[in-house]
Amino acid sequence: MKPRIYYTKPSITELEVRYATDAATNGWGEKCYEYINRFEAAFKEHLGVEYAIATSSCTGALHMGMAALGVGPGDEVILGDTNWIASAAPVTYLGAKPVFVDVLEDSWCIDPARIEAVITPKTKAILAVHLYGNLCDLDALLLIGEKHGIPVIEDAAEGIGSVYHGNRAGSIGKFGAFSFHGSKTVTTGEGGMFVTNDAELYEHVLTLSNHGRARGQTKQFWPDMVGFKYKMSNIQAALGCAQIERIEELTRRKREILSYYKKGLTGIPGLQMNPEPSDTVNGAWMPTVVMPKDTHITREALQQAFTTENIDARVFFWPLSSLPFLDSHAVNPVSDGLPGRAINLPSYHDITREDMDRVISVLLRLCLQR
Ligand SMILES: *Cc1c(COP(=O)(O)O)cnc(C)c1O
Description:
Layout: H1 14-26, H2 34-47, E1 51-55, H3 58-68, E2 76-80, H4 85-93, E3 97-101, E4 123-129, H5 138-148, E5 152-155, E6 163-164, E7 167-168, E8 176-179, E9 192-196, H6 199-209, H7 234-245, H8 247-264, E10 272-273, E11 280-281, E12 288-290, H9 299-308, E13 314-315, H10 333-337, E14 342-344, H11 353-368
Parallel strand pairs: 2-3, 2-4, 4-5, 5-8
Antiparallel strand pairs: 1-9, 6-7, 6-11, 8-9, 10-12, 12-14, 13-14
The structure holds pyridoxal-5'-phosphate.
């Protein structure tokens, strides 16, 4: 058996180990928030936003952000159907309903042209998820949001390193949410970040994130409202400080991997990969291939070929509307059609050229042998 090629794996250097060791050794008492404060400051600077709150997950950041926007029982939040459950789950926590809109054939992100048809008086937000590093058409989304008085929010968990018309993904909407799960470009093991430029929204989420205790509250142990407990630990933040110092290197490497795959696969006619429209940068979190529509090469054939070669490649996201417990009756042909002919390729930072060549040759063999 050839050695296993993993799908994702964090890039951990001496720097991460040094900071985490310091946090575990010294980061207590007076210093218990030191790395958290540093990580938030560094992240704000990287992203170009006013406010940031480190969280235990992106799911938690989305939950608090939407709670602060007033999303509640009976409300609706619009998002693309092709998505990971983490984008929709916080909507349901608040008693609201995720409304799934079909995605675009090329970016696999929400199709702006299909949004207005599902806007109702209950619509409280449009959630732009930058899938696999690919950017949503934010200009179009913001225009729709403005027209209907609905905030556009960004799930940028997969969009770190992506830039839209000069601004970083996650910094453009009413608020943005990031994930530092172990599979993401920047990791703290588990973790997330809430970001915004809105001072009022920031104060509200800050209070929510502190179990409802407002900053100005002088009474001890006195919550001003029911809040949440989605905090990041100082030790996780220490890992984050090291990762954010290396952000240029981490995203550059992700982009190198995507472009190496693209170059190696140019021979396959009609093959689609993560796009990079003009005046944007794709952070390239997850290199993904989608076979041409009329292809006979199915997800199962792709999975089988990679399994045989001991390569961990993963399936494309299922349409969330197909999950029975979400009780959606949306009909979204593009989102339905994509997963049957697509696969995610291994892309951890330390993957070698030889391993990428092995991945490429699996696809070339499968596609060109017929
Ligand atoms: C990973 C991911 C999340 C969830 O992040 P957690 O930190 O695990 O909560 C949310 N949205 C998207 C698009 C993701 O890829």
